[in-house]
């Protein structure tokens, strides 16, 4: 346990930040799963719409450095490839 007042405050701040980051990460995973589910169902129009929304979510979370920018690019690339693969 923290001994000083500033250490206690930093512990509180870290708890709040961790909870906030976890909620953002959960939103990211939900957005990715929604696109994957649409791709598996074969709904290309729905998948494209969900993909556009998920790109916004992914970019926002990457800008806030919750995930690395390369990880965000990888997620977008793989989702895009999955949607393009539906047409073939």
Automatic annotation (TrEMBL):
Listed Pfam families: Ribosomal_S20p (PF01649)
Span list, region Disordered: 1-23
A molecular function GO annotation: structural constituent of ribosome
First and last residue of the signal peptide: none
GO annotation terms (biological process): translation
Cross-referenced InterPro entries: Ribosomal_bS20 (IPR002583), Ribosomal_bS20_sf (IPR036510)
Keywords: Ribonucleoprotein, Ribosomal protein, RNA-binding, rRNA-binding
Gene Ontology CC annotation, any one: small ribosomal subunit
SUPFAM superfamilies: Ribosomal protein S20 (SSF46992)
Function: Binds directly to 16S ribosomal RNA.
PANTHER family for this protein: 30S RIBOSOMAL PROTEIN S20, SMALL RIBOSOMAL SUBUNIT PROTEIN BS20C
Family the entry assigns: Belongs to the bacterial ribosomal protein bS20 family.
Official protein name in the record: Small ribosomal subunit protein bS20
């Amino acid at each position: 346990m923290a001994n000083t007042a500033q250490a206690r405050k930093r512990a509180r701040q870290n708890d709040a930040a961790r909870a906030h980051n976890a909620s953002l990460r959960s939103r990211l995973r939900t957005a990715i799963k929604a696109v994957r589910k649409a791709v598996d169902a074969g709904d290309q129009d729905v998948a494209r719409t969900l993909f556009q929304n998920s790109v916004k979510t992914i970019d926002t979370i990457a800008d806030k450095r919750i995930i690395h920018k390369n990880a965000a690019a990888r997620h977008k690339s793989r989702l895009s490839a999955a949607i393009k693969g539906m047409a073939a």
